Fold DAGKc domain-containing protein.
Amino acid sequence: MERPGRLLLQSELRVRNAAYDVSLSRSLLTWKRRAASPVYHPFRPSVCHSVPVSEIISVREEEEENGSRQRDDGSWKKIREREGKDCRQAFTVLYVERCQQHRWRCAEVTFTCSDETVCQHWVSSIREQLASNTSRPKHLLVYINPYGGKHQGKRIYEQKVAPLFTQAGISTSVIVTEYANHARDHLKMEAELKKFDGVVCVGGDGMFSEIIHGLIWRTQIDCGVDPNSPEEALSPCSLRIGIIPAGSTDCICFATVGTNDPVTSALHIIVGDSQPLDVCSVHHNNMFLRYSVSLLGYGFYGDVLSDSERKRWMGPARYDFSGVKMFLTHHYYEGTVSYLPARGIIGTPRDATRCRSGCVICQHNGQLNSERSEKYEMDEASDSVSIHPWLFCSPESSGEWRTIRGKFLAINAASMSCACPRSPKGLSPAAHLADGTTDLILVRKCSRFNFLRHLLRHTSKDDQFDLTFVEVHRVRRFRFMPRHCQSDSDLELDLHENSKRQIFSQICKDHPACGCAPAYSSWNCDGEILTHTAIDVRVHCQLIKLFARGIEELPVFEDLTNPCAI
Ligand SMILES: Nc1ncnc2c1ncn2[C@@H]1O[C@H](COP(=O)(O)OP(=O)(O)OP(=O)(O)O)[C@@H](O)[C@H]1O
Ligand SMILES: CCCCCCCCCCCCC/C=C/[C@@H](O)[C@H](CO)NC(C)=O
Ligand SMILES: [Ca+2]
């Protein structure tokens, strides 16, 4: 809570017929009930409230008509009756109120006073403060996927979100998508982005993926960066993205806001929050495939997705059905994972601390990352040293790549916690939204019982990495090569490592024609299936920004800087 600072206005106003001392500073609106008697009354409701100006949604003058007052929304409010016989001026302040489980709601308080000039002065002062906040969006481009999740996107937007945007004075251009990739292609080629302060995505993780693909691509083209090259440092997108959750998993919304609630998301957009987010670029043989911000999963999560896509008719329940099916199927896959560990950063995947609103780890590591990029650019410009851009993340540079060969049930890269209602802690509970790294989780071949232990720990308090067959590394870059794509020399190496007999029996075992385990899985890239299995993944620190602030820490004790507590 901010300190109140210098007061801009202070008056005695009335709230529900009781006298209040009301004050406004640049940071806080406070209303404190005037003490009728100094005697402590245990049943008297809370008498002092304060709201950060940054969390005021709007202020509305109540207009008088025939003894009643009419709101902007047309509903009638009998203020005159409530206030007794006097004719009073009134204004209503709408503001953010926190509810349980990180949900936000729009609350309101109506102040009345007998002097019209005082009332107007209050309204104009609050409006001035809101207008001086340049981070609030005024014009938004909204894309609605009418088919995401339970097909409720249009209704959710119209009933829960649009009225709040109107109240906050935000104008919108709304596009209801007509086909898959409509939003992506519109952003890539058509949208007049200069007219907008942000983009809103009404849908699930798949729809969000469309939006970032359009926006990142467009930004690179506008900045003259080649988006196809895995070695290019991508230009960050200036437009923020708001997510109104209307999908099946909505993991990106849940992991950045703490809840999947359209009203909460709309309020974060209105107050102009900003949360940077890491983005992974995925390439195959120097060819761009996709971007990912949440999960890149091979093996278990790839198979769950492939299976569930054929069951879209089941709605969100398809993931549970395919999850159980793939768990019972128990396929494992052979391949080589190489990775560049993230050095010099704060934090590890086994930390007890969590990425929360205003995360200092993200700030520190983000800063470190931009200093490294600058250094690399300067070195390039002066041409004094010749570093292959592949090794741009020095000092871990040459010789720091590590390689692991094996049989894996799952290879997951979580660039954020991937928390969602199915897994409230997420796949990597200590992962950070904006630290420039991804957590590479390798689940080696093990028994069904052990794999179940690992999976169940996604939903319990126990550490899902504290198992002998699971390892986790915080990385900046990684590559995967399925065994059957390995070069002849790699396979020769295998021949040295294993006896001939073992190899042949394995090849036979992996061959689909034998009716046994398949050789390949596919990658689940934020809920989309990738067409290639051999991939090269690089994290781009804080490439995009959301209208969010990260998950807020729940208050533990009374805040002593709150003027009401003093
Ligand atoms: N008008 C449309 N018709 C058909 N498909 C669409 C349309 N608009 C978007 N899509 C596609 O629908 C897919 C799924 O959408 P979305 O992500 O909104 O819901 P979901 O898959 O149910 O949720 P989640 O991704 O959170 O699991 C996306 O891949 C998107 O490209
Ligand atoms: C015996 C079955 C046990 C099931 C184990 C439950 C664990 C659930 C964990 C879900 C994590 C989902 C991570 C999110 C990924 C999203 O990117 C993606 C797109 O929406 N969603 C999915 C389900 O792939
Ligand atoms: Ca990250």
Remarks:
- Residues 205, 249, 251, 294-295, 301, 305, 319, 323-324, 327, 418, 420, 422-423, 427, 455, 458, 524, 526-527 surround LY3EYVUO (ligand 2) (CB under 6 Å).
- The radius of gyration is 27 Å.
- The longest helix spans residues 360-382.
- Residues 236 and 543 are 4 Å apart (CA to CA).
